[in-house]
Structure formats: structure tokens, C-alpha cells
Write a sequence for this structure.
């Protein structure tokens, strides 16, 4: 027993040392780059992507991973086990509270109040909700560092809660609630999708997993989503139905919101775009909001490119083709790009997609898969001959996958299972899919270690 206690104390000290060393690394990197570290999250300064420069320095990113991983591991040691499991079990209340804050437009209401905040009676008034109940919701969020309780029942925005703010007036939102996210930074739309649709579906996942009829199915219409929303349609087909227009519009904006968690120009990093000549054909397979390029998705894509790069459409540099994943014309393609696509599908469907692309490729075609490449929670052996395949391991005694520092990727994995029987994959799993579909994995780039959907797996046609 004494030896065990000594080991626990040694681990606590090692974790504390990692935190201290990581803070020193951040301080040095910030000074060397003449940058600033973002303001404390308890402050009232709104989130601004331009202020994230310091956090995006590679050394700072990795140091941040170490701090989050070590801090969460410290908590798991020092907090009594029953309390830790209880905290995990009731964490769904935070998702519920976030959704309530979003649909009551609390962040927009508090934006006008500034640092002094606003009493919950005034926050509740525009949507006619019970201020006493809303106060309890906001207090839970403030306890999780989203919003600040300035004084009893008086709340203010902080850096985290400001990301829920669309920038629109409350009057404008209430007048046209279906247009709340049009022309916004989009992150609120992503959170509302997760806290409403994904949350509802996740409650059905345990039932689907143990169901005798569904347990062995990997089809996209035998999922927790199907059970929760009582439909036989796959998620993306259901989303495209006219009666789901509000959800479709929100989802399209939500997918754009993923960019907020990515560093600028992330898609340009880790792939030799400069090696492809002017006029090379790049096929964005199933782009848009991640479903197949059907008519509704084409409309959204045209709208996006018209706003962002209208000259590309006028000159024909960007073309739109309605098709599904399982048909692809044979032509001279330089790159097949699948960004955040593979994780929407189970293995058997991914193999069908990749085989379709392989049949349309020639020997010079490159396959570029951009997704979340997750690690096992234990040490793994990767193919050393593949450039970029090995990750730099975290210092002991951190979990080999950095634990809570990358927990979003593992939660996303279950979300993909929930909606479409898809999944986030390890590098070994991606390599196996490529091999089964006549592609060969030749290079890997992991990108920003704390961001979503930046890892790249590069393949060439197998001989």
C-alpha cells in the first residue's frame, strides 16, 4: 500500500513538472515570436481568431497539449473515483445548458451589457423564459468557464461564451429565427447541431449497439439517428428533405464553423500542391456539407464560391458536378480530395468509394484524405518507412494519445457512429482501407495537433 502511495505521489510530481515545463515553453515561444498569448478565458474580451496567433505557434500547440493532458490526469488521480465517474455521467447537463443558452440568445443579449453584465431577469425577458431556471443553467455554464457570474444572478460574456454570439441583434434573431446563422462566424450553429441533433441521437446509441437486428449492420440507415428520429432514411438524405430546411441551413453553416477550430490555410499544409501544374484537375469528392454532390449541395456550393471567389466561377476554374460517391467519370485527374468524408462512412462503404476513385484514376493520380487520424490509447507500432507516420510521443506518464487533450476526436468518433455508422480512424485502419481498395499509403501529415480535421493521408495507385 505504501509503495502504491509513493507511486501515485511520483506521478503527481511528474505531471506537475510537465505543466511547469510546458508553461516555460509557451513563455519562451511567445517572446521569441514577439507574439501575445490569448487573454484568460475568465476575462470579458470576446474571442477573436486574429488573437489566436500565439496559440498557433507549433511549440505552443504541443505545450498546450501537454498541459491539458497532464491537468486532466492529475484530476483523475486526486479526485475521489466515485466523484469522477459521477462527473462523467452527468456531463450531458453541460450540453443541455449550452443549447438553452443558444436558443435563448443569451450571448447576444449579454454582448450589449459589456463587462458589468446583466441581471438574469433582463436576460430572460426577450424569450419569456423563467429567469430563476435560466440562472441555474447559466451558473452551471459559468462553473465550466462559459460566461461569468459577475455578482449573484448577474452574468456577462467571456471569451468562450462570445463564440455563441452571432453578432446580430436579439430583435433581428427573434424576428427571423430561421436565419439566425446566416452570415455569421458559424460556431454557434455547430454547437447547436451537436447539442440538439447529435445529443438526441446519442441517447439511442446504447439501444442500437445491443439490438440483435442492428448490431452487425454498418449501413447508414441502421443508426442511432434513425431510431431517435424515427426514419429509415440515411442522415444526409433526410437532411435534404424540404421539411428539414431549417436543419439543413444550420448544418451547412455548422460545417463551415469547423474552420474556426482550424489554423488559417490548413488545407495547404502537408501536401505538395506546388508540384501540380497550373490547370491540373482537382476533384473535391463529396464536398459542400459532407454529403454527396446532389442538387441541394450544389446550390450551397455555388452560393459559397459566388461569395468567396466569384472569378473562379466566371472563368470556369471551379466547376460543379452532381453525382454520388459511387460514380466517377474516367478522366485525367491530378488529385482526388476527400475532406471530412471518410469518417461519414463505415469501412465497407469507404472501400466502395475508394475503389470507384481508383477505377477513374491513372498512375499519376494522388489520393488526399483529410480527416481526424486518431491514435490508440496505448503505444502503437507504425510503419516507419512511411514519411510522417510516426508521431512524437508525449512525455511519461501521459497517456500515449494525450488523453483529454484530444478527447474531442474520440467523441466525434462516436458521433459519426451515431449518425451514419461512420468513424474516425487510426492510421493503421486507414492504411488497411487503402490496401483493400488498390491504393497505397505513401505519406502522412498530422497538422495542428489540437484542431479538427487537419490530418492528411496521401495515397497513390497501388501497382
Amino acid at each position: 500500500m505504501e509503495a502504491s502511495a509513493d507511486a501515485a505521489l511520483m506521478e503527481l510530481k511528474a505531471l506537475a513538472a510537465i505543466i511547469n515545463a510546458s508553461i516555460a515553453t509557451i513563455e519562451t515561444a511567445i517572446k521569441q515570436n514577439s507574439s501575445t498569448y490569448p487573454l484568460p478565458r475568465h476575462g470579458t474580451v470576446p474571442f477573436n481568431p486574429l488573437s489566436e496567433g500565439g496559440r498557433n505557434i507549433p511549440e505552443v500547440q504541443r505545450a498546450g497539449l501537454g498541459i491539458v493532458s497532464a491537468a486532466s490526469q492529475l484530476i483523475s488521480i486526486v479526485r475521489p473515483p466515485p466523484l469522477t465517474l459521477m462527473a462523467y455521467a452527468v456531463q450531458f447537463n453541460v450540453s443541455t445548458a449550452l443549447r438553452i443558452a443558444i436558443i435563448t440568445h443569451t450571448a447576444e443579449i449579454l454582448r450589449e451589457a459589456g463587462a458589468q453584465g446583466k441581471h438574469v431577469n433582463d436576460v430572460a425577458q426577450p424569450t419569456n423564459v423563467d429567469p430563476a431556471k435560466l440562472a441555474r443553467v447559466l451558473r452551471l455554464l459559468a462553473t465550466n468557464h462559459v460566461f461569468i457570474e459577475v455578482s449573484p444572478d448577474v452574468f456577462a460574456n467571456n471569451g468562450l461564451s462570445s463564440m455563441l454570439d452571432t453578432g446580430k441583434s436579439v430583435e433581428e434573431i427573434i424576428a427571423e429565427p430561421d436565419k439566425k446563422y446566416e452570415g455569421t462566424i458559424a460556431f454557434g450553429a455547430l454547437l447547436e447541431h451537436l447539442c440538439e441533433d447529435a445529443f438526441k441521437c446519442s441517447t439511442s446509441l446504447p439501444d442500437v449497439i445491443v439490438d440483435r437486428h442492428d448490431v452487425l449492420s454498418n449501413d447508414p440507415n441502421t443508426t442511432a439517428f434513425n431510431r431517435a428520429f424515427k426514419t429509415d432514411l440515411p442522415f444526409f438524405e433526410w437532411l435534404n428533405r424540404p421539411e428539414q430546411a431549417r436543419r439543413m441551413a444550420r448544418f451547412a453553416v455548422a460545417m463551415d464553423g469547423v474552420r474556426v477550430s482550424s489554423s488559417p490555410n490548413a488545407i495547404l499544409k502537408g501536401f505538395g500542391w506546388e508540384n501540380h501544374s497550373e490547370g491540373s484537375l482537382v476533384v473535391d469528392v463529396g464536398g459542400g456539407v459532407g454529403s454527396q454532390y446532389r442538387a441541394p449541395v450544389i446550390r450551397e456550393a455555388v452560393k459559397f464560391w459566388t461569395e468567396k471567389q466569384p472569378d473562379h466561377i466566371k472563368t470556369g476554374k471551379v466547376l460543379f458536378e452532381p453525382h454520388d460517391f459511387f460514380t466517377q467519370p474516367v478522366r485525367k485527374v491530378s488529385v482526388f480530395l476527400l475532406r471530412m468524408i471518410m469518417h461519414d462512412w463505415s469501412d465497407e462503404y469507404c472501400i466502395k468509394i475508394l475503389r470507384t476513385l481508383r477505377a477513374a484514376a491513372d498512375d499519376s493520380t494522388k489520393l488526399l484524405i483529410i480527416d481526424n487520424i486518431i491514435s490508440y490509447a496505448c503505444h502503437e507500432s507504425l510503419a516507419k518507412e512511411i514519411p510522417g507516420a510516426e508521431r512524437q510521443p508525449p512525455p511519461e506518464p501521459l497517456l500515449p494519445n494525450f488523453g483529454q487533450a484530444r478527447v474531442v476526436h474520440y467523441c466525434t468518433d462516436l458521433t459519426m457512429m451515431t449518425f451514419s455508422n461512420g468513424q474516425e480512424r487510426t492510421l493503421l485502419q486507414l492504411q488497411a482501407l487503402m490496401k483493400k481498395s488498390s491504393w497505397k499509403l505513401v505519406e502522412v501529415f498530422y497538422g495542428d495537433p489540437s484542431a479538427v480535421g487537419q490530418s492528411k493521408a496521401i495515397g497513390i495507385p497501388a501497382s
